[in-house]
Amino acid sequence: MEIIILPTPADVGRVAADLIASVVRAKPAAVLGLATGSSPLDIYRSLAARVASGDLDVSEASGFALDEYVGIPLEHPESYASVIARDVVGPLGMDPARVRVPDGRAADIEAATADYDRAIAEAGGVDIQILGIGANGHIGFNEPTSSFSSRTRIKTLAPSTREANARFFDDPDDVPTHCLTQGLGTILEARHVVLVAQGAGKADAVAAAVEGPLSAMCPGSALQLHQHATVIVDEAAASRLTLAEYYRYTYANKPAFQRFE
């Protein structure tokens, strides 16, 4: 893992966007793995600003959303289909036909999830996967005890995850109990994964994912197995990292040929 510690959440979004923009410039038809939730919002805002200024063109890129609620109407403002359209596709000028979200309304869930993994493979795989991390260490909606080899599938949301997501709904009881999520095995097939985290509430999860043992109790620790994982966090989210000073030193002295800014 490469660990980048930055002063503020806005800096996290900017540097992650620098990295993603470099991938798209090198490969205009790149396949992007799109996360939802609050963690990646600064990334999308920073990318949108570049698109608006003419500095970046994402119109040829395609995307695969990380997850979707089960049973929520497509038009619901908090369905991830709606969120991706509102926060990503529109602001970045992406072609909606090139962006796919798991079908949480499918009559045959197993067929829908198998089809989703197949579609990712047929697209050539994900070039760069954006990730956040939950306070319990989940990535995507892979809750604790998820298999590191898991594929896209249906999962029951942990009570803590439903509680964390209740802020997006009018009533906490409206938060769905199930979701479709790319599995850890699916996520690990992306060529590059970029995890962002902000705030002290994510500090324990970040420390467990980066420096803790490989454990199904912290699904984010699976990223230790990835050959190209970048973790970008603010100072608050880095506060429990034992080797924080080393990570700062390493990033400050990164060879010029490895920089993406």
UniProtKB/TrEMBL annotation:
Allosterically activated by N-acetylglucosamine 6-phosphate (GlcNAc6P). The record marks S146, R153, K155, T156 as: Part of the allosteric site. Pfam families: Glucosamine_iso. Pathway: Amino-sugar metabolism; N-acetylneuraminate degradation; D-fructose 6-phosphate from N-acetylneuraminate: step 5/5. The active site is at D67 (proton acceptor), N136 (for ring-opening step), H138 (proton acceptor), E143 (for ring-opening step). Keywords: Allosteric enzyme, Carbohydrate metabolism, Hydrolase. Its EC number is 3.5.99.6. It catalyses: alpha-D-glucosamine 6-phosphate + H2O = beta-D-fructose 6-phosphate + NH4(+). Gene3D superfamilies: 3.40.50.1360. It is an enzyme of class 3 (hydrolase). Coiled coil: none annotated. Residues 14-230 form the Glucosamine/galactosamine-6-phosphate isomerase domain. PROSITE patterns: GLC_GALNAC_ISOMERASE (PS01161). Belongs to the glucosamine/galactosamine-6-phosphate isomerase family. NagB subfamily. Catalyzes the reversible isomerization-deamination of glucosamine 6-phosphate (GlcN6P) to form fructose 6-phosphate (Fru6P) and ammonium ion. This is Glucosamine-6-phosphate deaminase. It comes from Frondihabitans peucedani. The gene is nagB.
